[in-house]
């Protein structure tokens, strides 16, 4: 205390210090009076404050100790994503934790030598949590040196009472063991499902409510129906299969019996099919849980039709034994216990006379002896068991011909007690042959369509999508050429697949053809580029003779023409081992309106014999039996090509001779493209380089509404590679909710989605009260890319259509085209000088005025549209007068003349109509510019610290 007084007197200034007396704490203030050489002392008791500070420190230490001991990683970030706190579960090293404080996510990730993509992902989730003001959680994959770890992370934003962001609390839980367990469980499930799928029995699993949980391919062959049936009951399945409701009731009764009696139940049922009655043996087995409740019902179904028919035949034979013996073409005989025939019918006696079985001993090493041993063995089984036995077996004739017999043996109880064997044999040779041929044909069609669809369409989306992304990476010229060939070939392959899956449309003449302008020579060059590399690889000469016309731009379907030429060239390439292939486009007639061209593909290959030439145009047919094995191919190419040429207006002709090569040709007459169409085509030829494309798409806000995960991820990846800002939704309702909250430059809308589909969502968007947002460009993403479908989508309010799988460049081109068509003028339609003068420099007041204008003007625009459509110029004048003061305050000089014309009672209706049209075009643009300004202007909240809103446009 004395030292403070001395210091105060010596410095002639006040002094302050803290002193402690026992358990009390005081703040001592010394006020000197230098002239009098004394000082006034003031004591303030701060004991309570010091106790509160100590308690606060203890609480802080307590909570920090809890956070440090938590078995999860906990981090706290400020609004700039800088670390404020890190517990040991995040970083075990105390020095590392201290180093992390104040540093951001990217610095820490780089220091810990982890991929930048990891930091970018965390940054994105951080921004999403802050923007949405809700928790964001995701699963993160962290690649360590010797392992891969999975971490469940969550960002929890914490806000101050005034709404500003205070902090973001992050949690991280290592779920690696759970993921590994899930993976092991999935593998086990796949293992057991594989067993069930491979069992030669109809197997289904139901829940206690009789809903399907699983069904194997024997039960339902069609994979789409198998997927559809999950969650459905027998009533829905029978309705889908158009089977009588009595069958569903019978199965329901059986199911209820299993549930009620808690035991397995077996019964037979008969199903009427186009091929006749199908007899099934059904068994249902309950599966109980640990609590004794029924958990599952496992159902087995065995097709016993053949057995049923055999039993039926035997019963009829017993009833009409004499008639059967006298008239039946079946082989029938009765043998004793030693296998010696005791009785036979005429058919059996006849076949024995045509065979050597009577002269053969069972010990001989001949086919006949093996057949006798088989019959003897069946006899022994029948006699030993007393049961009927049936089976198929060969029967060799003396001529060497082998018949296929369906053999049925059963014991025959004679009146005197001796058991004999009744044998009935049916010659099923022709039936088996016909069945094999029918099954082979069906398998050929089914396998081809299924394999082509699965093996091509499944990877094609990834191939084309990733090839598109690859083109925008640094590549050499040769690599660019390779990628171009991949993309061209993939596109044509996809088109071919679509045609194969729609053969019915091709053959019925309902295939839709495009009619767009294209350059014939560019088409020939594109086709040639695809084939040329392969021809060179085989050591063949490949020549293209271009169409010699001043302007070879015509109207037709370039994809179909390319498909035909590719089919023919691929065919030539397949069967040509030396020499060369020539593709020629020869002009036959050139008129002001049309261009007639003969297309000819000539090769020096194997050639085709005259008697085989007609058959190769048939579906699933090739010239020679070993063609597919030697050269590959489906046997569909020429059939499809012939149909396509006819659709294009020509006829495919063939000229070939074995050893002399083959020529395929057809002649088409095209309508010439107009000057405007040629100019449009030339404009579309201008390929934007990567920088221009990125610049065009960069920053565009895109809403992607797509229910298919892979398609959604691919589209998002493509757009984000062009630096677009993409938000995604998995269905129409979610997409509409995002649209209501945000403003987008372009919307990509899938058509077929669960719940609200793309057409319904589009209709809702077009009805939005904000006329600017209601005009947001929408591109339909569709797998039904036929002309009639596209017309339907455009009529529903969509701006363009894009077929899946899409080409990345085509997607970007369509987005750029729509965005440029919808682009706002670069000149500003407003100025804020007068408004800022009125606001006396208060920016918050300026923003409130602008927001009020943005809120109320869209309704005026809508009413003005209605008034103009009804030619109600009196009402239009009133509406124009209502917004006139606001436009004047905004210095929207360009709109003033049109306001004046609408207000002018002496103006003609035509003048007012023109003014209304101009005003209705400029008002939405003015609203867009104001919205853009407001969304990108920093806000000044009451705490005085500026914040930046997330851009809404």
Automatic annotation (TrEMBL):
It catalyses: ATP + protein L-histidine = ADP + protein N-phospho-L-histidine. Residues 134-187, 265-316 form the PAC domain. Its EC number is 2.7.13.3. The modification Phosphohistidine is found at residue 881. It is found in: Cell membrane. The keyword Kinase applies. This is histidine kinase. It comes from Hymenobacter cellulosilyticus.
């Amino acid at each position: 205390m004395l030292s403070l007084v001395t210091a105060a007197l010596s410095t002639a200034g006040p002094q302050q210090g803290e002193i402690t007396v026992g358990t009390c704490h005081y703040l001592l203030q010394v006020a000197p009076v230098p002239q009098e050489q004394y000082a006034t002392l003031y004591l303030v008791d701060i004991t309570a404050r010091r106790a509160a500070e100590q308690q606060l420190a203890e609480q802080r230490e307590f909570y920090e100790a809890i956070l440090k001991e938590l078995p999860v990683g906990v981090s706290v970030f400020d609004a700039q994503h800088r670390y404020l706190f890190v517990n040991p579960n995040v970083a075990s090293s105390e020095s590392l934790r201290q180093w992390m404080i104040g540093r951001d996510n990217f610095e820490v990730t780089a220091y810990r030598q982890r991929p930048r993509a990891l930091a970018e992902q965390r940054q994105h989730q951080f921004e999403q949590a802050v923007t949405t003001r809700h928790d964001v959680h995701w699963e993160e994959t962290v690649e360590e040196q010797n392992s891969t770890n999975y971490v469940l992370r969550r960002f929890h934003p914490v806000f101050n009472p005034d709404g500003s962001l205070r902090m973001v609390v992050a949690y991280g839980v290592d779920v690696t063991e759970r993921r590994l367990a899930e993976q092991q469980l999935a593998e086990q499930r796949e293992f057991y499902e594989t067993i069930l799928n491979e069992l030669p029995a109809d197997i289904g699993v139901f829940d206690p409510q009789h809903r399907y949980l699983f069904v194997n391919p024997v039960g339902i062959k069609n994979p789409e129906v198998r997927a559809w049936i999950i969650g459905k009951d027998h009533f829905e399945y029978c309705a889908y299969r158009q089977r009588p409701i009595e069958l569903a009731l019978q199965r329901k009764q059986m199911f209820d019996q299993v549930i009620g009696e808690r035991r397995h139940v077996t019964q037979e049922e008969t199903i009427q099919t186009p091929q006749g009655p199908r007899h099934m043996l059904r068994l249902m087995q309950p599966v109980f849980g640990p609590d004794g409740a029924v958990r599952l019902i496992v159902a087995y179904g065995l097709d016993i039709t053949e057995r049923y028919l055999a039993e039926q035949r035997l019963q009829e034979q017993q009833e009409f034994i004499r008639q059967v013996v006298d008239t039946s073409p079946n082989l029938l005989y009765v043998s004793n216990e030693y296998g010696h025939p005791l009785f036979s019918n005429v058919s059996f006696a006849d076949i024995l006379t045509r065979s050597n079985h009577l002269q053969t001993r069972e010990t001989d090493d001949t086919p006949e002896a093996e057949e006798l041993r088989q019959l003897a063995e069946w006899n022994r089984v029948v006699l030993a068991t007393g049961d009927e036995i049936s089976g198929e077996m060969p029967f060799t004739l003396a001529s060497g011909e082998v018949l296929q017999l369906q053999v049925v043996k059963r014991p025959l109880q004679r009146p005197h007690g001796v058991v004999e064997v009744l044998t009935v044999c049916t010659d099923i040779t022709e039936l088996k042959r016909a069945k094999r041929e029918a099954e082979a044909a069906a398998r050929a069609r089914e396998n081809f369509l299924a394999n082509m669809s699965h093996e091509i369409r499944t990877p094609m989306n990834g191939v084309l999508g990733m090839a598109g992304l690859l083109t925008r990476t640094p590549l050499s010229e040769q690599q660019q050429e390779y990628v171009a060939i991949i993309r061209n070939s993939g596109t044509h392959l996809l088109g071919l697949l679509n045609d194969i899956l729609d053969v019915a449309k091709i053959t019925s003449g309902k295939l839709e053809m495009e009619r767009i302008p294209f350059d014939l020579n560019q088409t020939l060059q594109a086709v040639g580029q695809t084939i040329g590399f392969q021809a060179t690889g085989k050591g063949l000469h490949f020549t293209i003779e271009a169409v010699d016309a001043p302007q070879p731009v015509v109207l037709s379907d370039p994809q179909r023409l390319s498909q035909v030429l590719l089919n023919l060239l691929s065919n030539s390439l397949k069967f040509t081992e030396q020499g060369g292939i020539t593709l020629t486009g020869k002009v036959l007639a050139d008129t002001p309106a049309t261009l007639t061209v003969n297309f000819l593909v000539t090769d020096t290959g194997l050639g085709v014999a005259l008697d085989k030439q007609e058959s190769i145009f048939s579906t699933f047919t090739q010239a020679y039996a070993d063609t597919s094995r030697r050269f590959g191919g489906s046997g569909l190419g020429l059939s499809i090509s012939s149909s396509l040429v006819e659709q294009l207006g020509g006829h495919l002709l063939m000229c070939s001779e074995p050893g002399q090569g083959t020529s395929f040709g057809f002649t088409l007459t095209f309508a010439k493209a107009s000057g405007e169409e040629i100019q449009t085509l030339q404009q579309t030829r201008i390929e934007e380089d990567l920088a221009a494309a990125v610049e065009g798409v960069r920053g565009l806000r895109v809403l992607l509404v797509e229910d298919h995960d892979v398609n959604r991820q691919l589209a998002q990846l493509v757009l984000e590679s062009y630096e677009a800002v993409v938000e995604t939704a998995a269905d129409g309702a979610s997409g509409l909710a995002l649209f209501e909250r945000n403003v987008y430059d372009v919307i990509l809308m899938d058509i077929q989605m669960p719940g609200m589909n793309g057409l319904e969502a589009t209709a809702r968007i077009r009805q939005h009260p904000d006329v600017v947002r209601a005009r947001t460009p929408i591109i339909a993403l569709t797998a039904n890319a036929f002309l009639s479908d596209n017309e339907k989508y455009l009529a529903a309010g969509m701006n363009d259509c894009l077929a899946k799988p899409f080409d990345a460049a085509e997607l970007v081109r369509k987005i750029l085209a729509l965005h440029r068509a919808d682009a706002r003028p670069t000149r500003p339609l407003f100025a804020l000088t007068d408004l800022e003068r009125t606001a006396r420099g208060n920016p918050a007041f300026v923003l409130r005025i602008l927001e009020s204008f943005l809120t109320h003007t869209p309704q005026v625009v809508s009413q003005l549209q209605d008034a103009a459509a009804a030619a109600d110029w009196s009402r239009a004048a009133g509406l124009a007068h209502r917004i006139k003061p606001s436009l004047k305050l905004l210095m929207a000089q360009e709109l003033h003349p049109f306001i004046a014309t609408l207000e002018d009672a002496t103006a003609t209706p035509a003048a007012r109509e023109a003014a209304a049209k101009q005003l209705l075009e400029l008002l939405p643009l003015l609203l867009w510019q104001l919205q853009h300004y407001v969304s990108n202007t920093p806000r000044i909240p009451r705490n005085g610290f500026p914040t930046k809103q997330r851009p809404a446009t």
